[in-house]
Design goal:
The protein is mainly α and 182 residues long. Helices cover 81% and strands 0% of the residues. It has helices spanning 2-18, 23-37, 43-55, 60-103, 107-135, 146-160, 165-179. Helix 2 packs across helix 5 and helix 3 packs across helix 4. It is globular.
Length: 182
């Protein structure tokens, strides 16, 4: 059990420390640790956990860590995984806040930030591509088009019409419960 808890701390701590750009950029790193390196779950189960986690309020990184930690080692696993997500970055932020404030106008720091942004974009695009296999599975019968319709309507409503994303999330949950069960 101690080794499992240590593995959870290492997996989520390493991913969190390497994930530049917030929660969404960490997801591919979590997926690599959870699916490829430790084999705690498969891609499909990880995709389902990600979908469910995105439907709930709060940061995705802590929700995934809590879920996966609990699945792997119960409550102690959840506490260790969430601790690995929160503690290293919180401590680092406290230590580095003054340094970053002093260096914010440094041309090399600005260049580093601009240099990493395309990598973050590609990581998110790769995750989206992998996740599309699960998100766009055809429904059955007359509702086989529904996943595509939900995605298109959500994108248009949020991006072009300015709808708060929470309403799209709630609507997709209701539509899924009514038309996509089974």
């Amino acid at each position: 059990m101690i080794k499992t808890l240590l593995d959870l701390f290492i997996a989520f701590g390493r991913s969190t420390m390497l994930g530049y750009g917030g929660g969404p950029s960490i997801i591919p790193l979590y997926q690599n640790e959870v699916v490829n390196r430790f084999g705690w779950m498969g891609n499909e189960e990880f995709g389902q956990a990600l979908a469910f986690g995105n439907a709930l309020p709060g940061p995705i990184a802590t929700k995934l860590a809590a879920y996966i930690g609990f699945k792997v080692a119960g409550w102690s696993g959840a506490v260790v995984a969430v601790g690995a997500v929160v503690l290293p970055t919180a401590l680092l932020m406290v230590l580095l806040v003054n340094v970053m404030y002093k260096l914010q106008s440094n041309i090399y720091i600005k260049g580093m930030i601009k240099g990493i942004q395309p990598v973050i974009f590609v990581m998110l695009a790769m995750l989206a591509f992998d996740f599309a296999k699960f998100a766009f599975q055809k429904g059955s019968g007359m509702f086989s088009f529904l996943p595509f319709l939900i995605a298109a309507l959500f994108f248009i409503s949020v991006h072009y019409l300015g709808l708060n994303p929470i309403w799209g999330i709630v609507a997709s949950l209701v539509i899924g419960a009514i038309f996509m069960h089974g």
